[in-house]
Design goal:
The complex is a heterodimer. Chain A is mainly β. Chain A contains no helices and 12 strands. In chain A, the strands form 3 sheets. A 6-stranded mixed sheet of chain A has the order 2-12-11-6-7-8, with no helix packed on it. A 4-stranded antiparallel sheet of chain A has the order 1-3-10-9, with no helix packed on it. By secondary structure, chain B is mainly β. Chain B is built from no helices and 11 strands. Classes of the chains: A mainly beta, B mainly beta. Chains A and B meet through strand 6 and strand 7 of A and strand 5 and strand 10 of B.
Protein backbone atom coordinates (compact mmCIF):
# COMPACT_ATOMS: atom_id res chain seq x y z
CA UNK A 1 0.00 0.00 0.00
CA UNK A 2 1.01 3.59 -0.55
CA UNK A 3 2.01 5.20 2.75
CA UNK A 4 1.21 8.89 3.18
CA UNK A 5 3.29 10.85 5.69
CA UNK A 6 2.40 14.39 6.72
CA UNK A 7 4.57 16.97 8.43
CA UNK A 8 4.39 18.50 10.88
CA UNK A 9 1.98 16.61 13.15
CA UNK A 10 0.85 19.93 14.62
CA UNK A 11 1.30 23.54 13.73
CA UNK A 12 0.53 26.86 15.45
CA UNK A 13 0.29 29.95 13.24
CA UNK A 14 -0.72 33.53 13.99
CA UNK A 15 -3.88 34.94 12.48
CA UNK A 16 -3.19 36.39 9.04
CA UNK A 17 0.03 34.45 8.64
CA UNK A 18 0.80 31.62 6.20
CA UNK A 19 0.36 27.97 7.17
CA UNK A 20 2.10 25.21 5.24
CA UNK A 21 1.44 21.48 5.57
CA UNK A 22 3.49 18.87 3.76
CA UNK A 23 2.53 15.42 2.54
CA UNK A 24 4.85 12.77 1.16
CA UNK A 25 3.79 9.53 -0.53
CA UNK A 26 5.88 6.35 -0.48
CA UNK A 27 5.48 6.05 -4.24
CA UNK A 28 4.46 8.37 -7.01
CA UNK A 29 0.75 9.18 -7.33
CA UNK A 30 1.29 10.86 -10.69
CA UNK A 31 -0.45 8.94 -13.45
CA UNK A 32 1.67 9.37 -16.54
CA UNK A 33 -1.10 8.82 -19.10
CA UNK A 34 -3.03 11.93 -18.04
CA UNK A 35 -0.32 13.78 -16.07
CA UNK A 36 -2.60 14.07 -13.04
CA UNK A 37 -1.62 13.69 -9.40
CA UNK A 38 -4.15 11.51 -7.54
CA UNK A 39 -3.93 13.47 -4.32
CA UNK A 40 -6.65 15.17 -2.25
CA UNK A 41 -6.72 17.34 0.87
CA UNK A 42 -9.47 17.32 3.50
CA UNK A 43 -10.28 19.56 6.44
CA UNK A 44 -11.89 18.18 9.59
CA UNK A 45 -13.13 20.57 12.22
CA UNK A 46 -13.89 19.29 15.75
CA UNK A 47 -17.05 17.22 15.88
CA UNK A 48 -17.57 17.38 12.13
CA UNK A 49 -16.96 15.00 9.21
CA UNK A 50 -14.09 15.68 6.85
CA UNK A 51 -14.65 18.17 4.07
CA UNK A 52 -12.98 18.00 0.66
CA UNK A 53 -10.76 21.01 0.01
CA UNK A 54 -8.56 20.11 -2.96
CA UNK A 55 -8.32 17.32 -5.52
CA UNK A 56 -5.90 16.55 -8.35
CA UNK A 57 -3.36 18.02 -5.91
CA UNK A 58 -4.19 21.62 -6.82
CA UNK A 59 -7.84 21.99 -7.86
CA UNK A 60 -9.97 23.72 -5.24
CA UNK A 61 -13.38 22.23 -4.58
CA UNK A 62 -16.28 24.56 -5.31
CA UNK A 63 -16.89 26.98 -2.43
CA UNK A 64 -13.45 26.59 -0.85
CA UNK A 65 -11.85 30.00 -0.16
CA UNK A 66 -8.97 30.91 -2.42
CA UNK A 67 -6.61 31.28 0.54
CA UNK A 68 -6.35 27.48 0.35
CA UNK A 69 -4.01 26.18 -2.33
CA UNK A 70 -2.36 22.88 -3.15
CA UNK A 71 0.87 22.20 -4.97
CA UNK A 72 3.39 19.49 -5.67
CA UNK A 73 3.79 16.45 -7.87
CA UNK A 74 4.66 12.76 -7.84
CA UNK A 75 5.58 12.15 -4.17
CA UNK A 76 5.78 15.58 -2.52
CA UNK A 77 2.80 17.82 -1.93
CA UNK A 78 1.92 20.95 0.03
CA UNK A 79 -1.26 22.53 1.33
CA UNK A 80 -0.90 26.26 1.91
CA UNK A 81 -3.28 28.59 3.71
CA UNK A 82 -2.12 32.04 2.66
CA UNK A 83 -3.66 34.06 5.48
CA UNK A 84 -4.89 32.05 8.44
CA UNK A 85 -8.40 32.75 9.68
CA UNK A 86 -9.86 31.63 13.01
CA UNK A 87 -12.26 29.28 11.23
CA UNK A 88 -9.34 27.37 9.70
CA UNK A 89 -8.53 25.67 13.01
CA UNK A 90 -8.88 22.00 12.12
CA UNK A 91 -7.05 18.79 11.36
CA UNK A 92 -5.94 18.49 7.75
CA UNK A 93 -5.45 15.19 5.94
CA UNK A 94 -3.89 14.33 2.60
CA UNK A 95 -5.10 11.23 0.75
CA UNK A 96 -3.99 9.33 -2.30
CA UNK A 97 -6.59 7.87 -4.63
CA UNK A 98 -4.06 6.47 -7.11
CA UNK A 99 -4.64 2.95 -5.83
CA UNK A 100 -7.81 1.48 -4.28
CA UNK A 101 -6.30 1.47 -0.82
CA UNK A 102 -7.12 5.20 -0.62
CA UNK A 103 -4.63 5.80 2.16
CA UNK A 104 -4.66 8.95 4.28
CA UNK A 105 -1.87 10.79 5.99
CA UNK A 106 -1.89 10.78 9.79
CA UNK A 107 -3.26 14.32 9.94
CA UNK A 108 -1.87 17.73 10.86
CA UNK A 109 -3.52 19.70 13.65
CA UNK A 110 -3.57 23.42 12.91
CA UNK A 111 -4.03 25.86 15.78
CA UNK A 112 -3.84 29.60 16.34
CA UNK A 113 -0.64 30.93 17.94
CA UNK B 1 -27.98 19.43 -2.15
CA UNK B 2 -26.20 16.15 -1.50
CA UNK B 3 -27.15 14.54 1.78
CA UNK B 4 -25.78 11.35 3.32
CA UNK B 5 -27.28 10.08 6.56
CA UNK B 6 -25.74 7.11 8.34
CA UNK B 7 -27.56 4.94 10.84
CA UNK B 8 -27.24 1.60 12.59
CA UNK B 9 -24.38 2.28 14.96
CA UNK B 10 -24.40 1.31 18.61
CA UNK B 11 -22.75 -0.79 21.28
CA UNK B 12 -22.12 -4.42 20.37
CA UNK B 13 -20.23 -7.26 22.01
CA UNK B 14 -17.07 -8.68 20.44
CA UNK B 15 -17.85 -11.37 17.89
CA UNK B 16 -21.32 -10.04 17.17
CA UNK B 17 -22.67 -8.36 14.03
CA UNK B 18 -24.02 -4.96 13.06
CA UNK B 19 -25.33 -3.47 9.82
CA UNK B 20 -24.82 0.18 8.98
CA UNK B 21 -26.92 2.07 6.46
CA UNK B 22 -26.33 5.31 4.58
CA UNK B 23 -29.34 7.00 3.02
CA UNK B 24 -28.39 9.20 0.08
CA UNK B 25 -30.28 12.06 -1.53
CA UNK B 26 -29.67 15.07 -3.74
CA UNK B 27 -27.77 13.25 -6.48
CA UNK B 28 -28.10 10.31 -8.86
CA UNK B 29 -26.98 7.64 -6.42
CA UNK B 30 -26.71 4.91 -9.05
CA UNK B 31 -24.04 6.88 -10.94
CA UNK B 32 -21.41 7.09 -8.21
CA UNK B 33 -19.06 4.82 -6.36
CA UNK B 34 -19.54 4.94 -2.61
CA UNK B 35 -17.17 4.46 0.31
CA UNK B 36 -17.08 3.69 4.00
CA UNK B 37 -14.34 5.39 6.05
CA UNK B 38 -13.83 5.02 9.79
CA UNK B 39 -12.17 7.05 12.51
CA UNK B 40 -11.28 5.51 15.85
CA UNK B 41 -11.71 7.83 18.85
CA UNK B 42 -9.04 10.52 18.75
CA UNK B 43 -7.36 8.96 15.72
CA UNK B 44 -7.04 9.59 12.00
CA UNK B 45 -9.05 8.45 9.01
CA UNK B 46 -8.98 4.89 7.69
CA UNK B 47 -10.66 3.91 4.44
CA UNK B 48 -12.70 0.71 4.90
CA UNK B 49 -14.47 -0.27 1.68
CA UNK B 50 -15.65 0.93 -1.73
CA UNK B 51 -18.40 -0.28 -4.03
CA UNK B 52 -18.80 0.61 -7.69
CA UNK B 53 -21.81 2.52 -8.98
CA UNK B 54 -23.57 -0.70 -10.03
CA UNK B 55 -22.44 -2.85 -7.11
CA UNK B 56 -20.40 -5.07 -9.38
CA UNK B 57 -17.01 -4.35 -7.87
CA UNK B 58 -15.89 -3.99 -4.27
CA UNK B 59 -12.61 -3.45 -2.44
CA UNK B 60 -11.78 -3.65 1.25
CA UNK B 61 -8.96 -2.71 3.56
CA UNK B 62 -7.08 -5.85 4.61
CA UNK B 63 -8.14 -5.62 8.26
CA UNK B 64 -11.83 -6.15 7.43
CA UNK B 65 -11.62 -8.59 4.52
CA UNK B 66 -13.77 -11.65 5.17
CA UNK B 67 -15.64 -9.90 8.01
CA UNK B 68 -17.26 -6.83 6.44
CA UNK B 69 -19.42 -6.66 3.32
CA UNK B 70 -20.31 -3.49 1.47
CA UNK B 71 -23.47 -3.44 -0.62
CA UNK B 72 -25.95 -1.01 -2.11
CA UNK B 73 -29.57 -0.86 -3.18
CA UNK B 74 -29.84 1.67 -5.99
CA UNK B 75 -33.64 1.43 -5.94
CA UNK B 76 -33.59 2.70 -2.35
CA UNK B 77 -30.60 5.07 -2.71
CA UNK B 78 -28.99 3.31 0.22
CA UNK B 79 -25.49 2.05 0.98
CA UNK B 80 -24.84 -0.68 3.54
CA UNK B 81 -21.98 -2.10 5.56
CA UNK B 82 -22.54 -5.51 7.10
CA UNK B 83 -20.01 -6.00 9.89
CA UNK B 84 -19.52 -9.50 11.29
CA UNK B 85 -17.12 -10.91 13.87
CA UNK B 86 -16.62 -7.46 15.33
CA UNK B 87 -13.49 -6.72 17.34
CA UNK B 88 -12.61 -4.03 19.85
CA UNK B 89 -10.35 -2.42 17.24
CA UNK B 90 -13.38 -1.86 14.98
CA UNK B 91 -14.63 0.76 17.45
CA UNK B 92 -14.92 3.98 15.47
CA UNK B 93 -17.15 6.55 13.87
CA UNK B 94 -18.11 5.16 10.47
CA UNK B 95 -18.66 7.68 7.68
CA UNK B 96 -20.13 7.06 4.27
CA UNK B 97 -18.72 9.20 1.49
CA UNK B 98 -19.66 9.79 -2.11
CA UNK B 99 -17.04 9.20 -4.75
CA UNK B 100 -16.25 12.13 -7.01
CA UNK B 101 -17.38 10.20 -10.06
CA UNK B 102 -18.30 6.70 -11.18
CA UNK B 103 -14.65 5.73 -11.40
CA UNK B 104 -12.44 4.04 -8.83
CA UNK B 105 -9.57 6.47 -8.67
CA UNK B 106 -11.34 9.53 -7.38
CA UNK B 107 -11.60 11.73 -4.32
CA UNK B 108 -14.32 11.54 -1.66
CA UNK B 109 -16.97 14.15 -1.08
CA UNK B 110 -19.23 14.97 0.51
CA UNK B 111 -19.27 12.85 3.67
CA UNK B 112 -22.09 11.95 6.02
CA UNK B 113 -22.09 12.95 9.69
CA UNK B 114 -21.07 9.46 10.77
CA UNK B 115 -22.41 6.78 13.11
CA UNK B 116 -20.52 5.51 16.15
CA UNK B 117 -19.84 1.80 16.55
CA UNK B 118 -18.54 0.66 19.93
CA UNK B 119 -17.38 -2.91 20.32
CA UNK B 120 -17.21 -3.77 23.99
CA UNK B 121 -18.20 -6.51 26.39
Amino acid sequence: DIVMTQSPDSLAVSLGERATINCKSSQSVLYSSNNKNYLAWYQQKPGQPPKLLIYWASTRESGVPDRFSGSGSATDFTLTISSLQAEDVAVYYCQQYYSPSYTFGQGTKLEIK
Amino acid sequence: QVQLVESGGGVVQPGRSLRLSCAASGFTFSSYGMHWVRQAPGKGLEWVAVISYDGGNKYYVDSVKGRFTISRDNSKNTLYLQMNSLRAEDTAVYYCAKGGSSGWNIWFGPWGQGTLVTVSS
